């Protein structure tokens, strides 16, 4: 009987879903209290793909569903410890990677010592026709890897390797890949991969490692032959890529924009908020990456709840908190599986004083994902008819609102918050001091959505200024820091009816003018250290070289629309706000302008909207 379960992994092979976990048991000597220790092994539970989910739930509730021991290191009465199981499915086969130790009691020191570390691969074959649940997977004898994965190629640097607990990856060419961590001789920990290109007959360590001090890797394949690795690096989280099976790793700038995170200078971040699991899945014909992470501490009562994030590496949205049947104190490790048209989550949680594993089918979440993908396709098709660029289009604010203070992103990714504004067709009218919309992008913390705005973006909006203001009035811009603060790039309009561009906090009047009641298309563009402002496809003044945000140690947390915290007041209407994750050409900007009459009511259809 196990006392608790942890470190879940989940795969599907040959019509059988396999839920794996580390099972631990407390051992207590009756004559020596000091000999108390824990022993662990790997257990697995099996689910037939044709089995109704409701019948499985009934079995679990009636204590009829059992887990079976797959691997352990107990030897001659001595306990063993296993660590960080990970699994890959290929066809009818399951490949389980697990590290383990033998435990030896040292009477003189009165403690248990770890000895004889070894990594093993255990191969299971699915037997879908088996009559008994216990026979659905037939496991082979464990294969030790110490001789196969010699550290010879790293002799000057590495002294041992161990698993990361990450889900393994089956690449498009059939290669099996696991992530590992390794200890260097200077005691630094690095991340790397273990792979087999011949169905597990031989395993190889990657020739290279990710940068030092990058740990807890999570890997997946994105594009054929390209491995992505999300890793916790110092006071943040980075994404790396390798196109040569781990020989070289480079920063994957622009990939998984919601994952990148760096804590404030001098501050540390909550490491429990790192990515829990990362997988790829093709849903409704769309290739996606799905990953889990816990909520941000500022999210109040849902701070430690688990959320599911979905991205096509351009648009990103999240769902949650993910449901649980128990009063969970905290979610620890977790694993995702998308197979046979169903999405599953296995999670390790603390319930009361005990740790356990739960398995859930995320039916409602999958429906939401499919609905969101359908919306993306409808909007993209609508814009394509009017030749509006859709490559890199990640957000669109138009006619849909909550009826309150929320301007809803038509792509269902990131909404804007509206203050003191009146709803009009395809947008809002801003008329009072402090009247504005704030479109949050990249606030400090691990739950930011679009970190790309710190490097490249195009923000396009249609505006009408109704009255000449009493002073310079902000219209559109990107602020630095937590509040609106200093403007890295922006556009204002003045009482002498001139456009004013803002770069790195400095406002400069241009020779271009505006007229009350006229409609204009305005755009802000950032391309690394180059900022540009456009009105009706024409640049306002000259492009400006501005310090990169890395140089300033700051981020763009949000865009302000229609105004900011100033007290001059405004009288302007802003409609149809587009956000791209790349700079647009002047020709593309003009095509965005041409699409204004094609907007609908937020459902991909034309409509009158509100006036």
From TrEMBL:
The organism's place on the tree of life at top rank: Eukaryota
Protein name, as recorded: Trans-sialidase, putative
Coiled-coil residues: none
Keywords carried by this UniProt record: Signal
Sequence ranges assigned to domain Sialidase in this UniProt record: 8-325
Molecular function (Gene Ontology), one example: exo-alpha-sialidase activity
SUPFAM superfamilies on file: Concanavalin A-like lectins/glucanases (SSF49899), Sialidases (SSF50939)
Annotated region (Disordered), positions in chain: 592-611
Signal peptide interval: 1-21
A Pfam family: TS_C
CDD domains: Sialidase_non-viral
Domain Trans-sialidase C-terminal: 389-585
Claim: Signal is one of the keywords in the record: yes
């Amino acid at each position: 009987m196990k006392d608790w379960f942890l470190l879940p992994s989940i795969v599907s092979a040959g019509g059988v879903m396999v839920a794996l976990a580390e099972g631990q048991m407390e051992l207590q000597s009756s004559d020596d209290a000091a000999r108390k220790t824990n022993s662990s092994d790997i257990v697995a539970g099996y689910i037939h793909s044709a089995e109704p989910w409701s019948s499985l739930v009934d079995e679990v509730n009636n204590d009829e569903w059992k887990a079976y021991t797959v691997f352990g290191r107990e030897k001659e009465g001595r306990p063993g410890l296993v660590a960080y199981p990970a699994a890959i499915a290929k066809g009818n086969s399951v490949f389980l990677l697990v590290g383990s130790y033998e435990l030896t009691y040292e009477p003189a020191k009165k403690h248990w010592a770890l000895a004889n570390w070894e990594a093993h691969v255990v191969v299971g074959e699915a037997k879908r026709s088996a009559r008994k649940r216990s026979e659905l997977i037939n496991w082979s004898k464990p294969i030790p890897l110490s001789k196969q994965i010699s550290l010879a190629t790293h002799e000057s640097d590495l002294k041992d390797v161990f698993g990361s607990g990450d889900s393994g990856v089956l690449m498009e060419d059939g290669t099996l890949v696991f992530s590992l961590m390794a200890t260097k001789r200077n005691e630094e920990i690095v991340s790397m991969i273990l792979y087999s290109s011949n169905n597990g007959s031989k395993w190889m360590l990657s020739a290279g490692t990710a940068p030092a001090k990058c740990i807890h890797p999570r890997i997946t394949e994105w594009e054929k032959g390209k491995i992505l690795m999300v890793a916790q690096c110092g006071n943040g989280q980075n994404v790396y890529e390798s196109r040569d099976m781990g020989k070289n790793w480079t920063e994957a700038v622009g990939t998984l924009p919601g994952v990148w995170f760096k804590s404030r200078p001098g501050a540390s971040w909550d490491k429990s908020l790192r990515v829990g699991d990362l997988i790829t899945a093709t849903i409704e014909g769309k290739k996606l990456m799905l990953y889990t992470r816990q909520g941000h501490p500022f999210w109040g009562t849902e701070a430690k709840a688990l959320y599911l994030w979905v991205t096509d590496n351009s648009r990103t949205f999240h769902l949650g908190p993910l449901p649980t049947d128990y009063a969970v104190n905290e979610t620890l490790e977790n694993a995702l599986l998308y197979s046979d048209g169903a999405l599953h989550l296995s999670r390790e949680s603390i319930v009361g004083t005990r740790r356990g594993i739960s398995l859930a089918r995320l039916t409602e979440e999958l429906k939401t994902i499919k609905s969101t993908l359908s919306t993306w396709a409808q909007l993209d098709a609508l814009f394509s008819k009017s030749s509006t660029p859709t490559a890199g289009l990640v957000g669109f604010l138009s006619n849909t609102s909550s009826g309150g203070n929320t301007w809803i992103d038509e792509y269902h990714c990131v909404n804007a918050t509206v203050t003191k504004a009146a709803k009009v067709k395809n947008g809002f009218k801003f008329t009072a001091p402090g009247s504005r919309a704030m479109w949050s992008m990249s606030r400090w913390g691990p739950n930011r959505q679009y970190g790309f705005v710190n490097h490249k973006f195009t923000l396009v909006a249609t505006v009408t200024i109704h009255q000449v203001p009493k002073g310079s009035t902000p219209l559109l811009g990107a602020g630095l820091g937590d509040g609106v603060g200093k403007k890295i790039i922006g556009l204002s309009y003045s009482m002498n009816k001139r456009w004013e561009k803002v770069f790195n906090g400095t406002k400069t009047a241009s020779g271009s003018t505006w007229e009350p009641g006229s409609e204009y298309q305005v755009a802000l563009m950032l391309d690394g250290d180059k900022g540009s402002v456009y009105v009706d496809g024409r640049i306002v003044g000259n492009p400006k070289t501005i310090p990169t945000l890395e140089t300033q140690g700051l981020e763009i947390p949000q865009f302000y629309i229609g105004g900011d915290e100033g007290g001059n007041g405004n009288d302007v209407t802003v409609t149809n706000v587009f956000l791209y994750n790349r700079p647009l050409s002047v020709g593309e900007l003009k095509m965005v302008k041409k699409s204004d009459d094609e907007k609908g009511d937020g459902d991909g259809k034309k409509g009158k909207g509100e006036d």
